[in-house]
Amino acid sequence: MLMKFIKKYPIIIMALILGVIIGIKVQIYFNEHYPDKNDSKLNQIFFLTKAYYFEDVDTTKLVESAINGMFEQLDPHTTYLPREDEKMSEETFRGEFDGIGVEFQIIKDTITVVSPISGGPSQKAGIQSGDKIVKIEGESCIGFTNKKVIASLRGKSGTKVNFTIYRSANSKEYDFTIIRDKIPINSVDVSLLYNDVAYINLSRFAETSTLEISKALAKLKFDGMKKIVLDLRNNPGGILSEAVSISDLFLDDSKLIVYTQGRIPEFDAEYFADNIDGYEEYPLIVLINRGSASASEIVSGAIQDWDRGLIVGETSFGKGLVQRPFLLSDGSAVRITVSKYYTPSGRAIQRDYSNGKDEYYVSAHSNPDSSKIDSTKLEHRTKGNRLVYGGGGITPDIIVEYDELTNYSIELTRNNIYYQFVRKYLDQNKAAIEVKHPNLEIFVEQFNIVNQKKSFIEFASDNNVLYNKSEFEKDSNYIFQRVKAYIARDIWGNNGWYGVMLNVDKQFQKAIELFDNELTENKVKLENE
Fold this sequence. Notes:
Blueprint: H1 2-8, H2 10-33, H3 41-52, H4 59-71, E1 79-81, H5 83-94, E2 96-99, E3 102-107, E4 110-116, H6 121-125, E5 132-136, E6 139-140, H7 146-153, E7 160-167, E8 172-179, E9 181-184, E10 188-194, E11 197-202, H8 209-223, E12 227-231, H9 240-248, E13 256-261, E14 269-272, E15 284-288, H10 295-305, E16 310-313, E17 321-327, E18 333-342, H11 357-364, E19 378-381, E20 387-390, E21 398-399, H12 407-414, H13 417-436, H14 440-446, H15 453-462, H16 469-492, H17 494-501, H18 506-516
Parallel strand pairs: 11-12, 12-15, 15-16, 16-21
Antiparallel strand pairs: 1-18, 2-9, 3-4, 4-5, 5-6, 5-7, 7-8, 10-11, 13-14, 13-18, 17-18, 19-20
Helix pairs in contact: 9-10, 13-16, 16-17
């Protein structure tokens, strides 16, 4: 019977036999090439996708996507940094990079120097604010992106870069050859004396931050400072040890500054002040806002818990997680949260992140009613038995909210109107301003830009910001102080900017008022007690 079937349907029988043979061969192939069952599921899936996906795949992107997907299930601050991002991050923390030393903006496709960095090779070569870089290595750089500018101008110390600038003041082009050098990234944006109050703005906690602040305080002490305002607003944090050493400048008697706790005991630690002389006797106010995070919260939390000074402004971000960096073989890195940090009174600063990263970051910059204490926050007591709260950032002793700007003002900033208008104005008037106002003090007291109201409104309208009379009038004082500050920065650097803007800074002015009321003389006295 079987032989009759074979004779009658030979093609079918051959096909069946061939199918069996092919199936056996395929099975053998898969068995030989199948990932080891002892590999992790992630490795097995990666192997199978790489081996059998119908198109070639970019394995680097696959791996990075897998890492990011895995970290999505963890806290918002456990992150993966590709090699280039890790390099940039290290430069920020280290406090320096190699390059020519200019701050720049791209205005209408043209690289415009905002300011040469103090002490850098560009400043020494005579590059000025307002210079427009039009060629790099003989080729036009009109239309360059920020990334391409950085790639073209940065480079190893000792190497040369040739570029051409156009200087509007005399309508001439100049060729420069500059030797790249180490460029400091200052974390102290400005330090100045406002009457007898030392004002120090710290923008990040980098390796050089304590040294920078110590130098600034020493000079301001020599100049006659009597009180100190430390501005940590919009400071996202940085190196933990720098937060500890900066706190130590203001705390005495081996006081606890911060401690960390996590799952693994080796990451648990306590950090104390040293018995060294600093600035413990000076009345102190720390300014914070919703952009103050991490190391900024360590400093403000320690100052508050020991009743050392007042915290003024808005509730801070609420980032109380400690990341440990791990460098990977290709130069990329992961930063994995290993513990939480706690203030001296036992407060955990970390905000809730259970609703996901989007909600976490959006809610940090929302504008809740700060006069109402979140009932979910845990109560703690300072050394002086004052009530403070944990689990949601640092709540200031004195809450001062900024007024919301109108949409007109927001559009002015978003469209870079201030800088562009000032750049055009200074091309025609800078020399006269410098002659009439030989120093910043005279400029702050006497210079008035309000007579440029019509020109400013027209310039903004010509650059996509249409005039809104009611909104303009509501913010007019702020608008013209900001224009004035841009002019001052071009001539006197950051001291010029802050020398003008502090006069309309509600939170800073509240700090001055508190000093005048002697709220920080020797011991803290709170308005709500």
